[in-house]
Predict the 3D structure of the following.
Amino acid sequence: MSTTSSLASRIAATRPAAGTLAAWWLGGSGFIFKTPAGRQVWIDPYLSDVVKTMFGVARAFPPPLTAAEAEPDVVISTHWHEDHLDPGCIPELARRRPEAKFIMSPASMSHAVSWGLAPSRITPLAPGATLDLGDVKLTGVVARHEAGVPGWEVPDAFGVVLDFGGVRIFHTGDTDYDPRIHRALAGTSLALATLCINGSVGNLNAHEAALLAWQLDTRSVIPHHHILWSRPADKIPAFETLDPNLFATTYRKLGGAANVILPAVSAGYTLTAAGAQPA
C-alpha cells in the first residue's frame, strides 16, 4: 500500500488524457475519479476511524490519505451510514473545500446539516433522478439496503451512474440483490461496474454480486466493500464473503466476459469507454 503522502501527491500530479479518467480505490466503498479538467469526484470516502468509537470496529489499515490532504470537487454519499457519510471527514472536507458540492440522500442531508454543512451546498439525489454537473452527469439507481439494525434503516439509499462524457461508471452503493437494479441499467453501456461483495448487513454477497455483474453491460468490474475492518477471524460470520477471488470465480462460472480487477487500496486505474486498467 502506498503511503498517505504519496497517494495525495499522485492524485495531484495525475493529468488524465482527453477521453480518459483516473481512479483510485480508498478501500471499503470509497473511490476517487479525476477528469482531464482536473475535477475530482469522490464517492463514499471513509477516512476516519469513527466506527471504532461507535461500534468498537477499527479500520484494518490507515486511511490512504487524510481529510486535510483531500481536494474533492464533488462528494457523493450513497447513504448516511458512517462508512459512507463519514462524520469524521465530511465536515472537514466542507470547511477546507468551500466550493465543493455534496450529493447525498435526503436522510444523509439531515445528518450533514446537523454537522454544520449549509443546505445550499447539498443536493439530494434519488433513484431515477439525474444531475448535470457539467463534465459529469449523475443518475441515481435503486438500492435495497436493509441493514437489519434498529435505528440504522436507510430506505433512501441509492446506487449511482457517473457519466463522464460517455465513460460511464456504476457504483452500487450498499444494496442487497434486487432485479430492479439491472432493469434500471438495461441499455446502459458501462466502462466499469463496482459492486459490494461483503454479504452482510443488507449487502450483496460475492455470488449475488457476480450475478448482478453478469446481468450488466460492462467492460470491467471491480468488487468493493471488503478488507476495511480489523476483526479476528472468529468474529467474522461465515456468511460474509470478503474474498474478492470468490466474486471473480463465480462471475467467470456464470460466463461473465468483462475484465475483473481485484483492487488494491490506493492503487491507480485508468478508465476509458473501453474499460478500466491498472495505471
